[in-house]
Amino acid sequence: MGVITVSVDDGVEERFRKLVAKKYGRIRGALGVAVTEAMKLWIEKVEQEEK
Predict the structure, then answer these.
(1) What is the mean pLDDT of residues 18-38?
(2) What are the Cα distances from residue 3, in Å, to 23, 32, 36, 45, 48?
(3) Counted domains in the chain
(4) Does residue 39 fall inside a structural domain?
(5) Is residue 22 a part of any domain in this protein?
(6) Residue 19 counted as domain residue
(7) d(CA 17, CA 13)
(8) Residue 33 predicted with pLDDT over 90
(9) What's the predicted TM-score (pTM) here?
């Protein structure tokens, strides 16, 4: 499993964390699950744009 350290706009981080907590609760690893899902969606979008 990879580890990525990134800086994110404060407002985006706050909104993201609130939505993750709302969807998954405060379970351990929820943030990683949501980030992985977001990255997969972004990858699909960019790959479609390249076609």
Answers:
(1) 96
(2) 23, 10, 11, 22, 26
(3) 1
(4) yes
(5) no
(6) no
(7) 6
(8) yes
(9) 0.86
Domain extent, residue 50, equals: 27-51
Contact of 34 with 16, CB cutoff 8 Å:
yes
Q: Confirm whether 51 is domain-assigned.
A: yes
* Cβ atoms of 34 and 24 closer than 8 Å: yes
Mean pLDDT across 13-23? 97
6-41 b/e (C-beta count within 10 Å ≥ 16 → b): eeeeeeeeeebeeebeeeeeeeeeeeeebeeeeeee
pLDDT tops 90 at residue 1: no
pLDDT band at 19 (very low <50, low <70, confident <90, very high): very high
